[in-house]
Amino acid sequence: MNPIVFAFPGVASLSDRLREDxxxxxxxxxxxxxxxxxxxxxxxxxxxxxxxxxxxxLCDPDRLALPLLFAxxxxxxxxxxxxxxxxxxxxxxxxxxxxxxxEAISSLHFAAFLSWAVDWLVTVDPHLHRHADxxxxxxxxxxxxxxxxxxxxxxxxxxxxxVLIGPDGESAQWVEPLAQRVSAPVVILEKRRRGDRDVSVSxxxxxxxxxxxPVLVDDIISSGHTMAETLGHLRALGSLPAVCIxxxxxxxxxxxxxxxxxxxxxxxxxxxxDGPGAxxxxxxxxxxxxxxxxxxIRSSMA
Length: 302
What we know:
By secondary structure, the protein is an alpha/beta fold. Helices cover 35% and strands 27% of the residues. The chain is built from nine helices and 16 strands. The chain has helices at residues 12-22, 61-77, 106-117, 148-158, 172-182, 206-209, 225-237, 255-261, 283-301, and strands spanning 4-7, 25-26, 28-33, 39-44, 51-55, 82-87, 120-124, 142-145, 162-166, 186-188, 191-195, 198-201, 213-221, 242-249, 264-270, 278-280. Helix 1 (12-22) crosses helix 9 and helix 4 (148-158) crosses helix 5 (172-182). The longest helix is centred in the last third of the chain and has 19 residues, at 283-301. The two termini are 14 Å apart.
């Protein structure tokens, strides 16, 4: 039987594309919230002897984790052959070390939780720094795909004469390959963080941005303060209006409005998280990974 997809809120357009591309049917996930804060999950759709795909972008992981677990366990109770997770945004990857005494290493623990909940996972550009590969964190097959080909296509179609700017050393893993794809110069800044909303970045050489459109690129826009600080430097240099691009648009508070007020001509993200600026579609990047997992499952049971 065809796979069946159950989508959590926030991934409607992406899950529709995925369902069509892998030849799956659509189930309905009912999520009821009780006044005491508890959740009830119900799956409408036949799971018996089928590969179940849960589509859930984990941009609000504390709220989503238990309902995701309930959905996965319910699918198994209803006879699912396998349960996989398509998590376009994968949370809790940034806490990859113990920076202060007593801290939990959240990336390890969240990976263990998901490894227990589902049989496989695919995602887009997880924030890996001290871990070279996503698979090293998981005991289930876990694959990631880079959104940079899709972002490169968007830049080529929408930005004339760009110069790419990464806010810190960690961003080099995304920005430098992207700069090669669009044949543009690249600048990697140094960032100093004094708190969640208190950051500073190194100065920018005027000659590098003169006559070019600055494109600020990072994997995540959350508070936006790093990009806002960079936009301030660019405005002081009298540069052309900048474009801000991120793979994942978390957008805490009024981040998008703050970036535009700081001088951004446009703020654009992929659709790993739904939002008004989610103009770059990554569904076609995820589809091959999902097909690979489904093929592997069928082959193992043949």
